[in-house]
């Protein structure tokens, strides 16, 4: 989570500090009846009497009442959301929000609570001093960080002609992670011994999960390694040996939307996240970089990856992420032993040449490109995969 | 009365009915509305094109109906809309159709605003002030209904109806808007249909032979006059008598009204007159006295005849035919030219019998004015007023009247007195007009009705000028009207004067008065602050006190009521759980009502619908703040009884008490 706020594209000075563009506005029905009023006025000009003005007056009275009541509603409504919530794309919030009408004057109603992701819930009516708990029924379709400070409350009470809106001074946020999917672990290199590593080496080690046999004791072997059962047979002290457990290294480098298409970026980040978690599940070390920030994060095998998810949720579109030098700088930050997984939204000549250079350095490079980049089958000897919103397949 | 939208549709239909000048169409439309809603159980959903075709069919039928009934064919569009609205009453509408329906009702209401200008509009307006806000609220409320699931989320109750304060604000804004919004009538005054039937008689017809037409004795108000003391309203001066009939002076010169300087006439008597229908006036503006100022908006270029009659070049009907004039309180003596004198003393030769009768009646009186008074009194006291008296002898009508019939209506008395004075060489003229008989006891205005048409004479005396003489016996004049009609006329007058005819000039006057009042208020408050301040502060203190006290009181009452309802809902739900538990279904403590219900749903429970209903009501009341009305509670009670008395359920549970709690598919 360190420095995560730096990568949010539109950082807020403080929650709720941004003002709404139109705190008071006509609704479509309001515009319609306004047009009706104008036409009635023109009819009144050609009428014998001004009685038509009374109809306009009735509608005008409705506007006035609506304006006043809607303003009162949004001013006195208080919302108490959970401090923060984590969920994946396509999921709903599960915790209830408490809404209270603090108005001493009367009931409020026709309230809509919206976040930048969409409408959270609607409240038809709430009596004076009353409160209610509602669970938002919004399905968050896109990853991102939705701050409570950007939640707006809108009321059309009571006639739906005018709407009053207010941005609530709330703290907290809803973090929507990319929806990850199961995929094959990327190829890893630079296998090192590691307790718990899922890959078996050719050598034996003094610790591990798979018992390989015994060998004579050598100076320096810890006493707890002695295999007492075989030592008792009179051949001297024997120590236990285990299969060597190895863990590979994978560096996942993601482009932050050089193509400029936010949907492709979301697919890219889903693919990157899925690859990272597949690698972690396969027991590899993962080095993670995004070309927007170019800061390496090293994640040990079997980590829960929460921080990665948080980072993936907060990444914003950066068209310059494939700018000259960024990829080089990122590659300088990762281990020379690691296999490189480049998850890109598009590919350019500089990237191609850099991949070619890595191939000549005998580095293992996998290139992940969007599914719509069908023309690209192989890039300078690297293995090319194509990712979509829900899977990754090898380019054929 | 169904929903607010239905009520608005009804209002529109009634407005459409009122465009006909009778109540037949109103009744038909109301009957259509009632029948469409009452037969609504079977929803009739016609294709849109059929509905549109029906609307155009309705327009076509309305066109011919209007032609047949002698009404304007422009209203046939509204008839088509009526058909469409009625068809759509028979099925539920989506939001867009609801909006369209509201707009159509407003259209019909708008048409009524331009056609129905009388007190019926007040009723329509009051209805609209209540129904339009309610309809808009209902429209919005419907769009806020949550998508109902099998067991809905706690549904919040529909908001309470439009509050009294909201309605008062709507009414206040409507009135304020009406008073202050800039206006300018671009249209020419539209002609109003002339009165139909027998009311088409003119004033002269009415006076000359009131028994001839019903208009003469009609109580219909022709004029309303606001004045302190109103004299005879003069309309025509008849100067020439041909031995049988009186006629107007065809060669009389017209002159402009001799307006007096403004400063001089400030305290002169002023009269405000409203004519119900300009067509009844025949270009004549009835006035009393010598007019010194005249203004009005339904006529053009008013002149005054040599006999003081005010007539205008052209006249038309407006929504409110109002004119105002001032009269000279002490008009100077008018001279009389010799030619005019000769004209006004011209009479058929008097017979010896008539002269003898005159001598006898006058009894040696030589002063012309006293002679006139004596003759006036003689006719008033010795003769009888009667409508429909037999026709007089055409050869010598005067003597026939004086010596034989001795009865008749006002014109005969006026004619007789004028001729008798002419015999005595006094210039006279017969004047036709109205005799203000009584004031409206509510408004204080004089209601001049058709039956107030009258004839009298004016005689000229060198020392006194023109003097009015009325020989008609007063005691036998027709009685005055009813008090109820006074009230109706007052409302009618106030409505037309202050609402229908509220125009830019009146608006400017109102604004000027408001400005003056506002500018004078601080000074007035300084002068009267000693007693005004307590009067203002006391209600303010009461209002503030209530503001701080009322919410607690209301909240406490509301909370107590709410607690009671929640307890009731919990009680019912506990009863349900008890019934289910007795039959082997126990709700585990960690299960929410909906989760427990989900478990029950996995099995074929015969009374599952009732269980769902009771659970739903419990959730809505306990968690959703929905009110538990007595009706709803009765429904819950019935559902509980059904659950309790279901024999199939009992038998099933008796055999396998825990069957329903096992997951599906388990043995």
What are the main properties of this structure?
heterodimer; A: 396 residues; alpha+beta; 10-stranded mixed β-sheet; 5-stranded antiparallel β-sheet; 31% strand; elongated; B: 667 residues; disordered C terminus
Q: What is this structure, in a nutshell?
A:
The complex is a heterodimer of chains A (396) and B (667). Chain A is of the alpha+beta class. Chain A has helices spanning 28-45, 52-76, 228-235, 262-281, 306-314, 326-333, 349-360; strands at 24-26, 77-80, 84-88, 91-92, 97-101, 108-115, 118-126, 131-134, 139-140, 144-147, 152-155, 162-167, 173-177, 189-193, 199-205, 211-216, 238-254, 285-290, 297-299, 339-343, 365-370, 383-387, 392-394.
Distance between the termini of chain B: 56 Å
The coarse overall form of chain A would be elongated
Q: H/E order of the elements of chain A?
A: EHHEEEEEEEEEEEEEEEHEHEEHHEHEEE
Q: What is Rg of chain B?
A: 39 Å
Tell me the span between the first and last alpha carbons of chain A.
Answer: 38 Å
What's the count of strands of chain B?
Answer: 15
Mean pLDDT across residues of chain B: 80
